[in-house]
Amino acid sequence: MAEHKSSTCPFCGAHDDFIIYARDWKDENNIKELSAISRENFEMAMRQELENVGFYKCSASYAQSAESKAIFSGLSKIEMEHAYLISKILKIPKSDIKLQDTCFRLDLENLENSFKREEKIKKFYIKAYNQAIEPRIKEIFFGLIEIEGDHAELFKERI
Ligand SMILES: [Fe+2]
Ligand SMILES: [Fe+2]
Predict the structure, then answer these.
(1) 72 C-alpha to center of ligand 2: Å?
(2) From the CA of 84, which ligand is nearest?
(3) How far away, in angstroms, is 148 Cα from ligand 1 center?
(4) How would you write the pLDDT of the chain (159 residues) with one tens digit per residue?
(5) pTM of the model
(6) Which one of the ligands is nearest to 149 CA?
(7) Could you tell me the CA-to-CA distances from 76 to 2, 33, 82, 112, 133 in Å, in that order?
(8) Ligand 2 center to residue 10 CA distance, Å?
(9) Helix 36-61 vs helix 66-90: crossing angle, to nearest 10
(10) How far, in Å, from the CA of 147 to the mean position of ligand 2?
């Protein structure tokens, strides 16, 4: 049977370069020591990702079309994967993860706000990438910049 790799990760949205065959996978996210600045940046990232999960869940529940429902619900899952990745790095138990579901009532307002959220988090990851000194952490922030950039584009096309 021919082997096939997906072009982006269906769970976290990571680009092709980050996708590897299962046989080659090793856990690189069990990081022993984080620099103070990377810790601070991951804590901020965690807050933003969780705010976005809550916002997208809420937006999906008020969605006015099947397409917007699919987008908001898909994005809530992807951002949750990002939050799980960060919780692993920060060694925060999953049970400590709390969501706040607030959003607008109309798709257009939610789409516009989503675009701002994705632009904001992308900018934040660029800053975190530049500040990180650890190679693995730089790699993680780089992957997140690409993904949040895709999300910003996705919303930009719809507002
Ligand atoms: Fe994210
Ligand atoms: Fe995103």
Answers:
(1) 10
(2) 1
(3) 6
(4) 556 656 899 899 999 888 888 888 888 888 888 999 999 999 999 999 999 999 999 999 999 999 999 999 999 999 999 999 999 999 999 888 888 889 999 999 999 999 999 999 999 999 999 999 999 999 999 999 999 999 999 999 999
(5) 0.93
(6) 2
(7) 32, 29, 10, 16, 30
(8) 13
(9) 160
(10) 6
